Amino acid sequence: MPASVEALLARGISVLAPSSDSPRADAMLLLARALDCEREWIVAHGEARAASAPARRFETLCNLRASGMPMAYVLGFAGFYGREFLVDERVLVPRPETEHLIDEALTFLKARRSAGMPAGTNVLDVGTGSGAIACTVAAENGDAFVHATDVSARALEVARINAGRLNVAERCRFHCGRFAGPVAGRRFDLVLANLPYVPTPDIPPRPNPIAFEPREALDGGPDGLDAYREFVPEVPGLLEPDGAAVFEAGPALMPELVALVERTFRARPVEVGYDYAGHARFVMVATASR
Ligand SMILES: C[S@@+](CC[C@H](N)C(=O)[O-])C[C@H]1O[C@@H](n2cnc3c(N)ncnc32)[C@H](O)[C@@H]1O
Fold first, then answer.
1. CB 103 within 8 A of CB 82
2. Residue 127 Cβ < 6 Å to ligand 1
3. Which of 103, 193, 241, 248 is the most exposed place for a label (fewest CB within 10 A)?
4. Residue 60: helix, strand or coil by DSSP?
5. What is the structure's pLDDT at 120?
6. Ligand 1 pocket member 179 (CB < 6 A)
7. Does 209 sit in the ligand 1 pocket, CB within 6 Å?
């Protein structure tokens, strides 16, 4: 006899319990995916019988999650700034803290408009991964044209799909290469970067979900700052005279990243931004005081 929805859910919770902090919530999401229904339907129809194909699909999803794979990869998408992004093992799962970088970017773009700057803003997103930053800035600001780079051609496949799904492909160009190499010679009003910043010794092994993410999206070298040490000195040459830049990194790296940005931009005031948890997470610099 086919298993009931309630029995499948209970089985899923027990499979996930050893590896997940939220086994019930995860099992609900995976069961909703396997049954192609809303979670509310599961709560209301515990006694319903599931057909064998979705029951098998659910078992496969639970086993993937139990192996440590991030929920976002198992489901195939991640929420970011109110939108759904396709994600898989080709890209980093966009993090909630990066939503603050978007807030900073949008604040800058709004201030430009209020100051009567000409329409049309050129933005550069370096290390775009899933395209979370590039596509969100383009979607939130119809005035922005975003160039985005990544060393990973596989990540860019995902970014292009996301730009298409979010209807911003017309205003996003994706380029494969290191840092701003592929857009050499261009100038931007706003440069955004969330480059790899996990110190190599801090990258956990599997089954930690982080270990499923691409190494080139995580590994910031011995102290986490290798990528920024190489990229930040390029940034003044990329910015328009009234441009700005925002960099994301781990809280422990902030003092050194701030010092690097201050050395690079000399007289320009450098600001620190904070994430949801109140941790220092962003460094912002504007080339003109506003
Ligand atoms: C921390 S992930 C950020 C992904 C995405 N921007 C986000 O915020 O979710 C860093 C990204 O930078 C890319 N990357 C690493 N080194 C790079 C380099 N030298 N130049 C350009 N991209 C690089 C990685 O492939 C990865 O996609």
1. no
2. yes
3. 241
4. helix
5. 83
6. yes
7. no
Give the nearest ligand 1 atom to 152 CA: 25
> Tokens at residue 60, please?
């496969």
User: What is the whole-number distance in angstroms between the Cα of residue 17 and the centre of ligand 1?
Assistant: 32
* Centroid of ligand 1 to alpha carbon of 201 (angstroms): 19
- What is the CA(232)–ligand 1 centre distance, in A? 14
Residue 158's nearest CA partner among 129, 136, 135, 137 is 129
HSE-up (13 A, CA, CB side) for residue 20: 24
Cα(95) to ligand 1 centroid in Å equals 13
242 compared with 130, residue with greater pLDDT: 130
Q: Which domains does the chain have, with CATH numbers?
A: 5-67 (1.10.8), 91-286 (3.40.50.150)
Distance CA 290, CA 286 (A): 8
CA of 120 to the centre of ligand 1 (A): 25
Banded pLDDT at 189 (limits 50, 70, 90): very high
Task: Render pLDDT for 42-74 as a digit per residue (tens, 0 to 9).
Answer: 999 999 999 999 999 999 999 999 999 999 999
Give dist(CA 122, CA 148) in Å, integer.
Answer: 11
Summarised one tens digit per residue, pLDDT across range 160-179 is 999 999 999 999 999 999 99
**234 close to ligand 1 (CB < 6 Angstrom):** no
Are the CB atoms for 146 and 173 separated by under 8 Å?
A: yes
- Asked if pLDDT for residue 226 goes beyond 60, the answer is yes
Q: Is 136 close to ligand 1, i.e. is its CB under 6 Å away?
A: no
Element (H, E) at 231: helix 226-231
State the distance from the centre of ligand 1 to the C-alpha of 28, rounded, in angstroms: 32
Q: What is the pTM of this model?
A: 0.95
